Amino acid sequence: MIRFFLISLLFVSSSVFSACDNLLDYSHQQLRSNEKIDLCERYSGKVLLIVNTASKCGFTPQFEQLEALYQRYRAEGLVVLGFPSDNFFQEYDSSEETAEVCYVNYGVTFPMFASSNVHGRDANPLFRQLSERSDTSVKWNFYKFLVARDGKHVEAFNSRSEPLGGALEQAIKRALSQDQ
């Protein structure tokens, strides 16, 4: 019985790790927290909208629509993940100020992570993978990457792509309708 349990556990563990296909095989620290989140463990099998954000950008008001998307589709499996970045010199140095913009000013409830690089050689591993898989490099704040449940299909949307009512929302609906 114990042998069967161990073999089953090994099979399940290897299935979880292979489900990420290296895209989500990454941990990142939450905004204003010491806790690191294993993206594979937490978000595997979900449709992900991964966004590089900045608190002092002309696109910062998109937080409202991103939150609305999250509220509208999270029961169907959508998770919005925000990654603040100062690559374009429009993010606060202080995580407290960044958190205030996100949580207080815009009422963000979707997961936000600690500031990191999302562009160039120093980009965090997740954004390097997103850029490779979508053949799109981040050129400004609020680039959006839609990741299918299988973690393999990645579609990129630039800063000007409004979260609600356009091509991005339609792509989210298609991704959510794919087999779970």
From TrEMBL:
<dbReference type="GO" id="GO:0004601">
    <property type="term" value="F:peroxidase activity"/>
</dbReference>
<dbReference type="GO" id="GO:0034599">
    <property type="term" value="P:cellular response to oxidative stress"/>
</dbReference>
<protein>
    <recommendedName>
        <fullName>Glutathione peroxidase</fullName>
    </recommendedName>
</protein>
<feature type="active site">
    <location>
        <position position="57"/>
    </location>
</feature>
<feature type="signal peptide">
    <location>
        <begin position="1"/>
        <end position="18"/>
    </location>
</feature>
<keyword id="KW-0560">Oxidoreductase</keyword>
<comment type="similarity">
    <text>Belongs to the glutathione peroxidase family.</text>
</comment>
<dbReference type="InterPro" id="IPR036249">
    <property type="entry name" value="Thioredoxin-like_sf"/>
</dbReference>
<keyword id="KW-0732">Signal</keyword>
<dbReference type="Pfam" id="PF00255">
    <property type="entry name" value="GSHPx"/>
</dbReference>
<dbReference type="InterPro" id="IPR000889">
    <property type="entry name" value="Glutathione_peroxidase"/>
</dbReference>
<dbReference type="InterPro" id="IPR029759">
    <property type="entry name" value="GPX_AS"/>
</dbReference>
<keyword id="KW-0575">Peroxidase</keyword>
